[in-house]
UniProtKB/TrEMBL annotation:
The keyword DNA damage does not apply. One of its GO terms (molecular function) is malate transmembrane transporter activity. One of its GO terms (cellular component) is plasma membrane. Keywords: Membrane, Transmembrane, Transmembrane helix. The lineage of its organism: Eukaryota, Viridiplantae, Streptophyta, Embryophyta, Tracheophyta. NCBIfam families: dass (TIGR00785). CDD domains: SLC13_permease (cd01115). InterPro entries: SLC13A/DASS. Coiled coil: none annotated. This is Tonoplast dicarboxylate transporter.
Length: 552
């Protein structure tokens, strides 16, 4: 080491003595050649860079080639939509960054002012998501989800082992967790719990043995249960929040959809689809006869040992559960019925579900954890995992919906769905659900909802039909992303385990999608009419929408 240092010292000493020596060491001259030119071309013209250019190129083509009879902003909005959706589909730009594109594209194209666009990124619905995510991080930090999963698994394990019953316990736990947090977060939290059970099994020697089939059933069950459970509540998925946000935006004078109202419809719908999913998985992958092959690797003793390792519930865990329970109670009772007003009436309708969500999340930063001096249940360092990508995507959904409405594009595109007017009344819900369910396989469910729901509002107005008769099937259909791994982040979580392939997803996803559409067909004109009062007076669009109609 000393010799090398001496050599370096002598080298620089010689340079100092040479008056012609440069002040800074020079690199070897770069030789220009055809190879270096080709390498530069390859660096510039990559597939990623070409996909980046695809967005503005498609936007320019739309601006030059498409002409609508309506206002110019409708064509510009279509061009912006093509740009944004091309980046979303190809992921040429990270999705969170693409989600911020309306902030500069809308003002440039004259669709909306910078202030108006920015306001759509933060509203009561987004506040609801932020508060829910902070609570979900607290649940994850204190391993409450693992304790819940192990207890329910022990309850359903059976003695001797009953694989269909165990599968029901794992899927039921995932669906329950997904009711109170985003379905992607639920899948991310529950997948390690599920695979932890599967790791007790030996490596599969064949693709059709009981161990391999049960592993497929568990992974598919967690993935689909996260999505199905999310349908039942407003907080379970961004799609429901987008739907409620659009309903509030388009029909500000109508009765708003609260947490309890949606749950009265969403829980029965989700429960019927969940039972069908469990039956399909048992039929294809998880028979009761496979219990003898699995029992030697999984028994109650191992599960009890893992539960005991977590120890008794500490004060912090009990307080997080208490805060979560109070939040759920406040959500459910904010708005009850016309005859029995909820606690929200005390504030003359000024508070929303987001108000409660943020308030209860704030308590986590106030209540002590009793684990250290001055330590609270949560601190900001624990919130670094907040999924801002989902928050930005949700904001982009509201921005696009507002832009489609402001520009008049919704009315123009809805004219291409005129064929729905000739469909029998009872066939409207399945037709809309089928269209939305097809689109969602190729783009995110949030993006599908953002695109389809504003069009359905215009179609409903043309058909003189209550808007929710079309809006709810359109939003629910967007959540039937059961076929492809890329359809939703929850599917990616399961596919990344390596225990399932596309063939398995299609095998289970097709009958599950058909059953989901069937359940929607039955429940929307029956239970939906009762919960959402779709047989009552048809609400009128807001002032902004009326001005669009007169301008177009």
């Amino acid at each position: 080491m000393e010799n090398s240092n001496n050599n370096d010292h002598n080298h620089y000493s010689n340079l100092d003595n040479d008056p012609k020596a440069p002040l800074l060491p020079l690199q070897e001259p770069i030789q220009t050649s055809e190879n270096s030119y080709n390498s530069n071309i390859k660096i510039i013209f990559t597939v990623k860079n070409l996909l980046i250019l695809l967005g503005p190129l498609l936007c320019m083509i739309v601006c030059l080639c498409v002409q609508f009879e309506g206002p110019k902003t409708s064509r510009d909005m279509l061009a912006v939509l093509v740009w944004i959706f091309s980046w979303w589909l190809t992921e040429a730009i990270p999705m969170p960054i693409t989600s911020m594109a309306p902030l500069f594209l809308f003002p440039i194209f004259g669709i909306a002012s910078a202030d108006d666009v920015a306001k759509t990124y933060m509203n009561d619905v987004v506040a609801l998501v932020l508060g829910s995510f902070i609570l979900a991080l607290a649940v994850e930090h204190y391993d409450i989800h693992k304790r819940l999963a192990l207890n329910i698994t022990l309850m359903f394990c059976g003695d001797p082992l009953n694989p269909p019953l165990l599968l029901l316990g794992i899927c039921g736990t995932t669906a329950f967790v997904s009711m109170w947090m985003h379905n992607t977060a639920a899948a991310v939290i529950m997948m390690p719990v599920a695979t932890g059970i599967l790791h007790r099994f030996p490596a599969s020697s064949g693709r059709s043995d009981p161990v391999s089939n049960f592993s497929k059933a568990v992974v598919l069950g967690v993935v689909y249960s996260a999505g199905i459970g999310g349908m039942s509540t407003l907080t379970g998925t961004g799609v429901n929040l987008i739907l409620v946000g659009m309903w509030k935006s388009y029909f500000p004078d109508a009765e708003q959809i609260g947490f309890a109202t949606w749950s009265f419809f969403g829980v029965p719908l989700a429960l019927s689809i969940f039972i069908a999913m469990w039956g399909i998985l048992c039929l294809f992958y998880c028979t009761k006869a496979s219990g003898s092959a699995l029992s030697e690797y999984l028994d109650k003793t191992l599960l009890k040992r893992e539960l005991e390792a977590l120890g008794p519930m500490c004060f912090a865990e009990k307080m997080v559960l208490s805060v979560f329970s109070v939040l759920i109670a406040l959500w459910m009772t904010r708005s009850l019925t016309d005859d029995i007003p909820g606690w929200g009436d005390l504030f003359q309708g000024r508070v929303g579900d987001g108000t409660v969500s943020v308030m209860m999340a704030t308590l986590l930063f106030i209540i002590p954890s009793k684990k250290g001096k001055g330590e609270k249940l949560m601190d900001w360092s624990k919130c670094k995992k907040l999924p801002w990508n989902i928050v930005l995507l949700l904001g982009a959904g509201f921005a696009i919906a507002d832009g489609v409405r402001r520009s008049g594009l919704a009315q123009i595109l809805s004219s291409y769905l005129d064929f729905l007017e000739n469909i029998p009344y009872l066939a409207v819900a399945p037709a809309v659900c089928l269209i939305s369910g097809f689109i969602t396989e190729f783009t995110s469910n949030n993006a599908t909802t953002t695109l389809v729901v504003p069009l359905l509002i215009q179609v409903a107005e043309t058909m003189h039909m209550h808007p929710l008769i079309l809006m709810i099937p359109g939003a629910i259909g967007a959540q039937f992303a059961f076929l492809l791994p890329t359809s939703t982040p929850s599917n990616i979580v399961g596919f990344s385990t390596g225990r399932i392939d596309i063939k398995d997803m299609i095998k289970v996803g097709i009958p599950l999608k058909i059953i989901g559409i069937g359940a929607m067909t039955i429940l929307m004109p029956t239970l939906g009419a009762l919960v959402f009062q779709t047989n009552g007076p048809i609400p009128s669009l807001g002032i902004l929408d009326s001005s669009i109609h007169s301008r177009a």
